[in-house]
Model the fold of this input.
Amino acid sequence: MTSTGRKIVMAKRFDGMPNVSDFALQEETLPPLQDGGVLCETVCLSVDPYMRSYSRNMKEGDVMMGQTLSRVVESRHPNYTMGDLVLYYSGWRDRYVVNNPDDPQPWPLQKANYVPKGHPSSLSLGILGMPGATAYFGLNEVCRPVKSGEVVLVNAAAGAVGAVVGQLAKQQGCRVVGFAGTDDKVAYLKEMGFDEAFNYKTMGSLDDILSQQCPQGVDIYFDNVGGQFSDTVMNHMNQFGRVSVCGCISQYNNTTPSIGPRLQGLLISKQIRMEGFLVHRWKDNWMECMEKLAALVACGEMKYRETIVEGFERAPEALIGMLEGDNIGKMIVKCESSV
Done:
């Protein structure tokens, strides 16, 4: 019997901020399930800032990229049984077949069996998934050594990555200053244990805020935003400061490249280490990271929040909302109600 599923594709290339009309919901015929394969139904899908950046390489008609948390509904693979929850970069599909689940490129099918009891399985797309790993490795590896007493600055701090970065830095004895885009997000950062938090839209001069709140300078800057915000922060970095360049969401919707200051002189004179990264660099250490973060979640030392959008067909709304800053914590599209 032929199986079908739904997919969401890029119907029109994005010009600046995406619009709902730039996407199309389509039905597709799934390939036959082969020996060694699995048929999955999507439970939740992830929307993340990187999607806007990577979409520049997409063509009209391409399936939107992204990771899903799915349930195995049929299996011809010895390691997977009906009902297993799995993670896969299927793109925006509500049903899909994986006939080579052990293929490591771009990422193998993976069981989502490490979320602590009593917590939602959707955490495997957030704090116990790619965003959590991004925070963990982006802080502890890119900015090493992280030392007690250092000043850590995080922007987009109320998002899926930034909130984890702040909590990890606090657990290592750092003073953490966060920036977000609403008063509700600032309150959330205070709940997460940030020492100081500011609404960048209403605070006035960032240069003045940093002079007041970080009079001895900034040791570690975890940058999710880029743009003029980062231009200002760089002038407050300390000698031997470390800058983890995780994202540049302020630039993703630009239709023409922005021109900023030249940083080479500053990097040299202050001996700053500034490094961009893609989290899959630490693929071989992934489960070690997940185990550590899961233990922190289980004992209540790592807090989280999710913003849930109900319905597979509303994934475009969720992506646009996330890019506009509507979420606190991880933005999740829930495709069924049982998880």
